[in-house]
């Protein structure tokens, strides 16, 4: 058994899963509106930036960026299509974190991850 072949089979199973197909459909619907697309791109950019700043700055987030992120989140969550997409994305992230935990435990590696969702 080749681990990489197994990983590619798992990736294909994930792609074919109901959850992944639903996420793709929700993403397409959310991004179809130009305003939503621009806001989502900014939201995701700030999300990554804040995550990186938390790691690099001992858990401190620049307040202006955090405030902008919270404002965008509030605005985006008012749109039902965007809200459904972001919630489905969070659920997929949780699922993938669970899979990662299973894999690291199988390899005998302890890798404590924060709870998602």
Describe the structure.
The chain is mainly α and 117 residues long. The model has no long low-confidence stretch (mean pLDDT 89). Helix 2 (18-32) runs antiparallel to helix 5. It is built from five helices and no strands. 4% of the residues are buried. The chain is 79% helix and 0% strand.
Number of strands: 0
Approximate shape: flat
Give the overall pLDDT as a whole number.
Answer: 89
- The run of helices and strands is HHHHH
Kindly report how far apart the N and C termini lie: 34 Å
Radius of gyration: 17 Å
**Quick one: biggest sheet?**
none
Q: Which structural category fits the helices and strands?
A: mainly alpha
What is the helix content? over 70%
What is the strand content? Answer: under 5%
Poorly predicted residue ranges: none
Question: Can you count the helices?
Answer: 5
Notable features of this structure?
mainly alpha, 5 helices, 117 residues
Helix and strand layout, with pairings?
Layout (H helix, E strand, L loop, with lengths): L2 H14 L1 H15 L1 H23 L6 H14 L3 H27 L11
Structure summarized in a few sentences:
The chain is mainly α.
């Amino acid at each position: 058994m080749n681990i990489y072949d197994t990983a590619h089979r798992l990736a294909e199973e994930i792609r074919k899963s109901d959850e992944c197909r639903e996420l793709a459909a929700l993403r397409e619907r959310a991004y179809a509106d130009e305003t939503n697309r621009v806001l989502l791109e900014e939201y995701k950019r700030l999300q990554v930036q804040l995550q990186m700043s938390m790691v690099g700055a001992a858990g401190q987030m620049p307040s202006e960026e955090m405030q902008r992120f919270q404002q965008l989140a509030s605005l985006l969550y008012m749109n039902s299509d965007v809200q459904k997409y972001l919630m489905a994305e969070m659920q997929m992230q949780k699922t993938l974190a669970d899979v990662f935990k299973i894999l690291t435990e199988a390899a005998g590696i302890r890798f404590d991850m924060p709870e998602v969702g």
